[in-house]
Design a protein that fits this description.
The complex is a heterodimer of chains A (318) and B (514). With 318 residues, chain A is mostly helical. Chain A has a single domain (11-313), classed as ABC transporter involved in vitamin B12 uptake, BtuC (Orthogonal Bundle), CATH 1.10.3470. In chain A, β2 (160-161) and β3 form a beta hairpin. In chain A, α3 (40-65) packs parallel to α8, α5 (94-117) runs antiparallel to α11 (208-234) and α8 crosses α9 (186-196). Chain A is 77% helix and 3% strand. Chain A has helices at residues 2-13, 15-33, 40-65, 73-91, 94-117, 123-142, 152-158, 166-184, 186-196, 198-203, 208-234, 245-255, 267-286, 291-313; strands spanning 147-148, 160-161, 164-165, 236-237. Classes of the chains: A mainly alpha (318), B alpha/beta (514). The interface between A and B is medium-sized, with 25 and 31 residues.
Chain lengths: 318, 514
């Protein structure tokens, strides 16, 4: 038992490497268990599935690094897609629809941020509230019926460039941008600082409210983008789109080595975490296991990932 | 350090009580993550004796007391009570054996009444199994009267008491356990002179009843007045044991610091130049009322006050942590209304906050990032931060402040307290402030680092930096300040010029509103 614990702690210390190792283990197992797994079609499909989770997880990671959490991303995905599809249908302008979809995401993020920074509502509760509100608005706008969605978003969501899904390429590009942002810019470094010790950062001259508002706004914007890609992929904006996505996104962030306690985490890890989540989903399909088990497994993965984090910090809370 | 190094007055040996000691600690050693905090400490405590325990912050006093009371386990050494070895696994076991520890930090439960606080964990019950409030209040009145706090109504909510009264409640709580060994960690730091008198009579009464009492204090006069014997700890070892009648203040300070010169004033002159900071009628709506003061450019200006006097609150208002609800603040003649510390830093006011762990360091960040966080925006190129430059600047401050570290990439939490504090100083100085605010800047740092920090303050002020230093330690104020403003319960009790600054005058002013 002691040895196992030591081993698990060791894993925790090199989280990116350990998630990469888990990714490899699942991949090797699947390549032996299923003939179809290594087919390019399947692998590219996994990449596509990972891309939306990863894009939303980029924003979520910054929120969690800043010691917050955003539970509303799944609903923001749905609402942004619905707003974009409805406006596109009613105005006939694709541009208006897409811009409105992104602005919807941004607005949701700003609301979360303002609830947190101005009204001092714990982000867990504030975003739990917006989770419900955003989903409700999406249902009200559509009467619960999916709205057809197409055009450029469909290209991003379902199209390919040289056989590689556009959404996957977009995810890689965004990951590079967010990585540079997080590690090289003043705001990025201040995000890590406020997550590590908010009080000390504030007294040192970091504008706590502005940075917190910014990360929530960015997270909302990326969730909005995720919604457009997801709806584009399905060529339809379902008001229930993205339901439960917050679980995948948070699991990807935590699996990737971001500390729930804030101040620590890498963008590379988040991308690997998202890939692992997509691979696990793929495994259930390929092995023909009931989708209900998939739901159970997601919960287990989250607990496992957070458990790793707790063991790594080795009882700091006691 | 071995016992042969300990200076012991001949008289102390000759008049040692003949009875075996109540508590005999031998070779107590304790390390925290490789740092030796206690190195083989020997201590005897006799029934009916008050022992003063003196030492600088970080000397190991609190650690030693936690070990005696069962809150910490020693790495090495033995403790005997009444000649039999004891090993307390918890504070509870210590209490059962008759060891009561009144901590420096107040720990009353604010939402409960004073009587409930006094009986926590041992509340009397009526026959119906309900709490017997009548009995508890009766017992509480008697306990409070014993420690000189008979004026406190046991039915009052403990959180509504001021700090000194809460301290007396804690002492009454310990008294209620009829301790054989009573440990008092800076019990008088927030008491008024009148309350100190009542407290002293309780200690003398407990001594007469046969208790052994350890009295930790920074106020040498109190130690000299109350104690039968004074033990000085330095760097985790006992360096002297003396009788108050046979020693002097100067001797005790020399024992505590190992450097008699640490608190010597560093003489300097301040030009009668510009007014760097002026406050007119500043209130914060909580504690501060009508604060007026002016600080000259290049001056080291002290802010002294007892616990709850408003030192930190005043710095908070100047630094934009809280807004002044009334009054005006001007920097170099320009009125400012700072809404956030980020605005203060931009306006040239940097703060080294009180509480290094909670409000100072970014524990998971490397030294370099800790030093650079206040000046990221100052040295940014567009949106990008100047990471290479941060390295160079951290290196420059490592040399000028004497920060001991292997690399600026190591986590700040791996440095010693004194070195961490120097990094926080580097952070503030790197922001190139016009005014530097220091809040208890030497709390929990060792003597060497303390002397360094005083030298740094004086040096920066000589270069023209205006420094405001809030401190609860009079020797610190006397060591570095050109003038001192004394606060008492949120009001300005007065401002003393260098020539008028003495420990007596400062303390008398601090009690003005009490």
């Amino acid at each position: 038992m002691q040895q196992t614990l030591t081993f698990v702690r060791g894993l925790g210390r090199h989280r990116e490497a350990s998630v990469l190792a888990m990714l490899a283990i699942v991949a090797i197992y699947l390549s032996l268990a299923s003939d179809y797994f290594l087919e390019p079609r399947n692998l590219l499909n996994v990449g596509r599935q990972a891309s939306v989770v990863a894009i939303v997880a980029l924003g979520q990671a910054l929120v969690i690094i800043a010691r917050g959490i955003d539970l509303s991303v799944g609903s923001v995905i749905g609402l942004s897609a619905v707003v974009a599809a409805v406006l596109m249908r009613d105005t006939g302008s694709e541009t208006i629809g897409l811009v409105a979809g992104l602005l919807t995401g941004l607005a949701c993020g700003l609301v979360n941020g303002v609830l947190y920074t101005r009204f001092r509502i714990n982000p867990f509760i504030a975003t739990l509230g917006t989770l419900s509100i955003a989903r409700g608005i999406a249902l009200l706008m559509t009467g619960g019926i999916p709205v057809p969605f197409g055009g450029f978003a469909e290209f991003v969501g379902a199209g390919r460039i040289f056989d590689i899904p556009v959404s996957f390429l977009l995810m890689i590009a965004l990951a590079v941008v967010v990585h540079v942002f997080a590690s090289r810019t003043v705001v990025g470094r201040e995000i890590y600082a406020i997550g590590d010790n908010p009080k000390a950062s504030r007294l040192a001259g970091v504008n706590l409210r502005a940075i917190r508002l910014f990360v929530f706004a960015l997270c909302g914007l990326l969730a909005g983008l995720g919604g457009l890609i997801l709806a584009g992929n399905l060529a339809s904006a379902d008001p229930n789109l993205g339901m439960g996505y917050e679980l995948d996104v948070i699991a990807a962030v935590i699996l990737g080595g971001t500390a729930l306690s804030g101040g620590r985490g890498s963008i590379l890890g988040v991308v690997i975490g998202a890939l692992l989540m997509a691979l696990l989903n793929n495994a259930f399909v390929l092995l023909g296991i009931s989708a209900y088990w998939q739901v159970v497994t997601k919960g287990l993965v989250i607990i496992f990932a957070v458990g790793l984090d707790g063991l790594q910090r080795g009882g700091d809370d006691d | 350090m071995t016992q042969s190094n300990v200076e012991t007055g001949a008289a102390a040996l000759a008049s040692a009580p003949p009875s075996p000691p109540l508590v005999r600690a031998r070779g107590i050693a304790k390390s925290f993550s490789g740092n030796a905090v206690l190195r083989s400490v020997d201590l005897d405590l006799h029934a009916g004796e008050v022992v003063g325990l003196l030492g600088e912050n970080g000397a190991g006093k609190s650690t030693l007391m936690h070990i005696l009371s069962g809150g910490l386990r020693a790495d090495d050494g033995t403790i005997e009570m009444d000649g039999a070895p004891v090993r307390f696994a918890s504070v509870g076991e210590g209490i059962d054996a008759g060891v009561s520890f009144v901590h420096q930090e107040l720990s009353v439960v604010g939402a409960l009444s004073v009587a409930e606080n006094l009986h926590l964990g041992r509340m009397a019950k009526t026959r119906a199994g309900l709490v017997d409030f009548g009995l508890m209040q009766h017992a509480s009145r008697a306990l409070l009267a014993r420690v000189g706090a008979g004026h406190i109504d046991p039915r009052r909510e403990a959180g509504s008491l001021r700090a000194g009264e809460q301290q007396l409640v804690e002492i009454a709580k310990a008294a209620g356990r009829k301790p054989r060994l009573l440990i008092l960690d800076e019990p008088t730091s927030s008491l008024t002179p009148h309350e100190v008198g009542g407290f002293f009579s309780y200690v003398r009464e407990a001594r007469a009843a046969g208790a052994a009492i350890i009295f930790i204090t920074h106020r040498l006069e109190e130690a000299m007045a109350l104690c039968d014997r004074v033990v000085v700890l330095r760097n985790g070892a006992v360096v002297s044991e003396r009788r108050p009648a046979e020693t002097t203040r100067g001797q005790l300070i020399a024992d505590m610091t190992g450097k008699p010169s640490i608190y010597a004033y560093r003489p300097r002159t301040v030009d009668d130049g510009a007014i760097a900071l002026s406050l007119r009628g500043v209130c914060d709506g909580r504690l501060l009322q009508g604060i007026d003061l002016e600080v000259r450019k290049g001056e080291v200006f002290g802010l002294f006050g007892l616990v709850g006097a408003g030192r930190t609150e005043l710095l908070d208002v100047i630094h934009g942590v809280h807004r002044a609800t009334a009054g005006t603040i001007a920097l170099f003649g320009e009125p400012v209304a700072l809404r956030d510390p980020s605005e203060a830093v931009r306006a040239g006011i940097a703060l080294v906050p009180e509480g290094r762990k909670t409000a100072g360091i970014l524990p998971q960040h490397p030294v370099r990032d800790n030093a650079a966080i206040s000046s990221l925006r100052r040295f940014a190129r567009g949106p990008f931060s100047d990471r290479g430059g941060d390295h160079g600047r951290t290196e420059a401050y490592r040399q000028s402040l004497g920060i001991r570290m292997a690399s600026d990439r190591q986590a700040i939490s791996t440095l010693s307290g004194g070195n961490q504090q120097k990094v926080i100083f580097a952070r503030a100085l790197m922001a190139e402030p016009r005014i530097l605010l220091l809040d208890e800047p030497t709390h929990g740092v060792d003597v060497g680092a303390k002397a360094d920090l005083y030298d740094i303050v004086t040096r920066e002020a000589d270069k023209g930096l205006t420094v405001v230093i809030a401190s609860s330690e009079v020797p610190e104020i006397l060591a570095v300040c050109d003038r001192v403003a004394v606060l008492s319960k949120g009001r300005l009790a007065g401002i003393l010029e260098r020539a008028d600054m003495t420990e007596d005058r400062i303390l008398t002013m601090a009690f003005k509103e009490h």
